[in-house]
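Action item from last week, closing it out:
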Amino acid sequence: MRRESYKRTLARLLMANGRRHEQIVRGLKEVEEAREEAVLEKIIAALERAVEFPELSWQPGFRAGKGAETLLLALGFKSLRADGIWTFAERLRTPAALEEYKLAIEAMKNFQVVDQKFAQLKPEPTSLCGISRILLVARGQTSIRSFDADGPFSDVLKWAKIVLNQTAFTLISTAPRRTLRSDDESLHAKTLQSLAFFPGATLELDEPRAPPPKLTTNKPKPSDLFKSIERRFDTKSNKPPPANRLAAAAAEKRAKNNKSIAANNQDKITQQIAPSPA
């Protein structure tokens, strides 16, 4: 959740190459765990050269630690020697491959931006005593960080602003149940312990919930059913039900025509059998 922008870029990469997407996601995670984010600059520079000069067949090597190995292999780099020297060795320069390189560059740059923001936060306490573990739940994802229990709540808000990528928001603590607005300055100086967030707390982002969809059904209302049955079995009126009015009108017209034809035929027969005048 802490890197929404680069994850959106990787989602586009997933549509282009699912296998490479999985390797890059795993590789970035290993780079972060190994604290080798500095190697990203060298990887980005090599990929940018490949995109700008597709005909380039050789690039200078650079040193990278073990934590970056998965990411380097996923992006087409090759180890030149056992001492950790890598160079970009991917020969594929098709439009689809170049587009994948561009997406990978964008993802890693966004990754760096967020890391720079996190670097501005106070480091997490290393001692196991007097710490408060805060779990942030938002948009179906979770993030967790340790804080000094005697530290101000503003530290949590600074972290949440980076995670959520927004400056104004409302958090709801589950125990005790409480609404916490980011612009409520009366909360900023309060310690986590005074807010009952020791030894930990769960904070949920208060997101506007969409109204439930209206249930649509083709079933008629009971009143409509009753009226339909009443019209069908109405003995007080000789009018046919609405559904049969057209058919009844056509039958009535045919009956009139038949009566007219029968009357004409009767007149002709009468004239034929009538005695001629003397």
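Closing note: Residues 131-205 form a domain with the Ubiquitin-like (UB roll) fold (CATH 3.10.20.90).
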